[in-house]
Design goal:
PH-domain like; 176 residues; 2 domains; 5-stranded antiparallel sheet; 4-stranded mixed sheet; alpha+beta
């Protein structure tokens, strides 16, 4: 499913989770949530049954959240169309970027650690442990969420070369 052509509209799909270790991390977190909820619930039940039920509900919500996020990460690739780049990472809000608004895409050594705390930067890397593969610098800032305005976006794609080739062609005005 890496950079497959999927319709007559010249739409390409790029995965971002296969090289990150995200699936293993979430599976480990699910095991931790189960073990922790069983142990803490047992202790809380002897002390306060009400706290036991509150903890059990919150643990179940956490478990479901992690499963839904993992499923969405696997099922929702980054989409590149003729004029738009759609980035939807798990349960996080979707970012829609017109190709014409992308000033440049940086790859390789980007200044992620220094810039990720900047308010105009959107970090769409999965775990935040690995350095993202791309930085998109925009001509004009776009709205993200309710109040955030962003001018740079950090994100990761598994097939770096194919994505860079396709986005460069589109920025030069060539069809896919």
């Amino acid at each position: 499913m890496i950079a497959e052509k999927r319709s007559s509209e010249d739409t390409f799909f790029f995965t971002y989770h296969k090289q990150s270790g995200y699936i293993g991390f979430i599976c480990a977190m699910l095991v931790v949530v189960v073990l922790e909820s069983v142990a803490v619930s047992f202790l809380l039940y002897n002390w306060s049954p009400l706290l036991h039920w509150i903890h059990l509900v919150l643990a179940n919500i956490s478990f479901v959240y992690l499963i839904i996020d993992l499923r969405l990460v696997v099922k929702n690739p980054i989409i590149l169309t003729n004029n738009t780049l759609f980035i939807k990472i798990g349960l996080r809000p979707q970012t829609t970027i017109p190709i014409d608004n992308i000033k440049e895409i940086l790859s390789g050594h980007i200044h992620y650690e220094e810039d990720k705390k900047n308010k105009e930067v959107l970090d769409l890397s999965l775990l935040g442990f690995d350095e993202p593969t791309f930085e998109a610098i925009l001509h004009e800032p776009i709205k993200h969420g309710k109040n955030k305005t962003i001018s740079r976006i950090f994100f990761t794609i598994d097939n770096k070369h194919d994505f860079l080739q396709k986005i460069s062609l589109k920025q030069k005005g060539h069809p896919f």
